[in-house]
Amino acid sequence: MERIKDVLAREPGVEAGAVRVGGWVRTRRDSKAGFSFVEINDGSCLASLQVVAGRDLPNYERDVLCLSMGSSVAVDGVLVASPGAGQKVELRATAMEVIGRADPETYPLQKKEISYERLREIAHLRPRTNTFGAVLRIRGELAYAVHSFFRERGFICLHSPIITTSDCEGAGAMFRVTTIDPGAPPRRPDGAVDTARDFFGASAYLTVSGQLEAEACACGVGRVYTFGPTFRAENSNTWRHLAEFWMVEPEMAFADLDADAQLAESFIRALACHVLANCGAELEFFRKRVDDGVVKRLESAATKPFDRMTYTEAVERLKASDRKFEYAPEWGGDLQSEHERVLTEICGGAVVVTDFPASIKPFYMRRSEDGRTVAAMDVLAPGIGEIIGGSQREERLDALEQNMRERGMDPANYGWFLDLRRYGTVPHAGFGLGFERMVQFCTGMRNIRDVIPFPRTPGNAEF
RNA sequence: UCCGACGUAGCUCAAUGGUAGAGCGGGUGGCUGUUAACCACUAGGUUGCAGGUUCGAGCCCUGCCGUCGGAGCCA
Q1: How far apart are CA A95 and CA A63, in angstroms?
Q2: Measured in angstroms, what separates residue A105's CA from nucleotide B18's C1'?
Q3: What residues make up the domain containing A314?
Q4: Is there a single domain that holds both residue A432 and residue A295?
């Protein structure tokens, strides 16, 4: 069985020889002259292969004339130059086997455009559409590019745990993992549920970040990265949030904020370059059908150095702009999404914002000399907003414990994390990239639910 | 979770409180090296769910469910 992508790249003629392909019917057009055109797509590329099936096939009337969109077929034939316009080559069928029919009365996909909302309801059939096939191919290429980027730089791929008992403060609500029967939980003498008798001997959750474990491993082998699923139980319903998403989290020992920001920039650049170099047909499709600015933004990310500014400068530039804001920019406040958007517009591309107020960032970020900011950085991408968040970590034991106490956390609960500072501490830094947001950036797809195969959001875990 | 919109045929949408319609898709026939094919005919409905107002509700009111857009939280 050959893939249509490879077949379409071949030259027609005798040396092309016999070809066998398998795929799903996109459309069938009959000629009264006694043959039919059947377009087959197998998802290996955007393009479909035009098959010409004639009356000489023994099952022409019985099978070919009944083919409809969605039917699966295996075709043997000879690749020839196409006399018609619209395609260079076509497959003259010598045999066509119908493997599975798709009743056109009930098959949900149509030749007409279908809304993204509707496609989400039939997520198991979305992969058969042009748009979603292209999303899946780009997503796969990006995953490959992530691993090769880090491998080339000496980073070790780290499989951080998905189940955790450490409640990483401030990272968001967590999903509980338990084997306790909710109808008959074990109880302590005072009546409260006895979580110490749960499966892990303590309350356990799905991870919200592999960062803490990555720090531990980086402080042993130097450079690591995680690439895995991450879970947030927030009831957030937006175009850029999922309850289950994939995150890439590198962590470097002997690195400061500047090294972190440089890594982030070259990482985004490498991913953009890889997609530009390897997904030309898909990008052209997205440019024409989804977002006409997507290629320009990718090319900018691939070639133009990212602007760099401190949080303090960012607030000043926002104040100096003549934009009207729903929330006025003010030092000490979070950058609102409207602020992020304006910053990328001012800079005409991606921008790295550094040195945020300590009060709006988590306990593990390194306090700067000024005492009021931390060595944090966000990468803002045009059309997306925050695509990377990272920091230099607080490697000084005293300062880290102080940060914890200021936030009402008990250092005693973070013994192993503090050990990393207690024994042979080193400056280290890392960041997290929202993988789906990167897929959005590379495709122009506006809703994050349409760049992951089976999205999980509040009230929706079907499929 | 908050604010706003929406929910009618398989899909996308119409319909002053007064007989539920169109386009696409499906079926049948015609035409054609076709390619968003085209032409004719045809089938297809518990108007999201539950109440209420009214002689009469797709339309008005209440509650619930769901979807979308914006916001917050973040990646």
Answers
A1: 11
A2: 35
A3: 128-172+208-450
A4: yes
